[in-house]
Amino acid sequence: MSTHLAPVARLPLSLEIASRLREAILVGDLTAGEELPTESALASTFGVGRSTVREALRVLQSQGLVTGAESVSTTRPRVTHDRLASTAASALTTALRVSAVSLPDLVGLRVLLERDAVQSVTDVPASAREGLEIMRAAAAAGDIEAFHLADVDFHVSLAYAGGNAAIGLVVEVMRGTIAGYLRAALSERGDPVPVLSHLCDEHEAIVAALDSGDQQRAAELVVAHIRGFYEPETER
Q1: Sign of the CA dihedral running 187, 222, 206, 165
Q2: How far is it, in rounded angstroms, from Cα 95 to Cα 186?
Q3: What is the largest CA-CA distance in the chain?
């Protein structure tokens, strides 16, 4: 039988219910902070057993859309947006680790997003300056762990400072993946102090360009900074 004429796969009821509740959250019918109906009420609404509803809620909890799952509680789940970035970051990290997205593709995406964001930055945020100070201290101490965390915070801060919330969010979602590659790459560079110091110089040059009002120069420096560090990794 042709695969086009094969039986249509049916989703488990729990996934169908999770999909409907997810859509209600996305369109705003269920808003952030709102308590969901009881399991009994949801079971009655959807015409299923409470165990099916419970499984649907677990799906939504794993997606970061409703509270719960992380602890035992007698309170009803509430709609939440707080964990969406971390949930999306986990999904992206998983995709990268199974090679669904390559490092060169990730580098290319970072270049596009961060170049665009920096071109719109009119005021360097305090969080980026603070990250730069932490990086400089970490570089002097050869502290790779502290450096890479501050490095990622620096780039996320500039991405949001560009004023495009979508770009900021995507870069933030990429935070864990960026940090993982950065930490691994730094660990392979031998004596970390010269490398970290050089990266600090590049970050400071980006900030100096923005402070002088030359966003185009800052964007060029961001591209050179990202590609200059990762391109040797992408050629392996």
Answers
A1: negative
A2: 22
A3: 68
What are the angstrom distances between the C-alpha of 233 and each of 32, 41, 90, 95, 147? 41, 54, 22, 19, 19
> Does 150 score more than 70 pLDDT?
yes
Q: How far is Cα 68 from Cα 62, in angstroms, rounded to an integer?
A: 9
d(CA 104, CA 106): 5
Contact in structure between 52 and 43 (CB atoms under 8 Å): yes
Q: Is the dihedral of CA 164, 66, 10, 29 positive or negative?
A: negative
125 and 141 fall within a common domain: yes
Same domain, 95 and 18: no
What is the model's pLDDT at position 234? 42
Per-residue model confidence (pLDDT) at position 236: 37
Inter-CA distances, 6 with 78, 83, 89, Å: 40, 39, 35
Domain span at 167: 85-234
CA–CA–CA angle 118, 181, 91 (5° rounding): 85
Domain count, the chain: 2
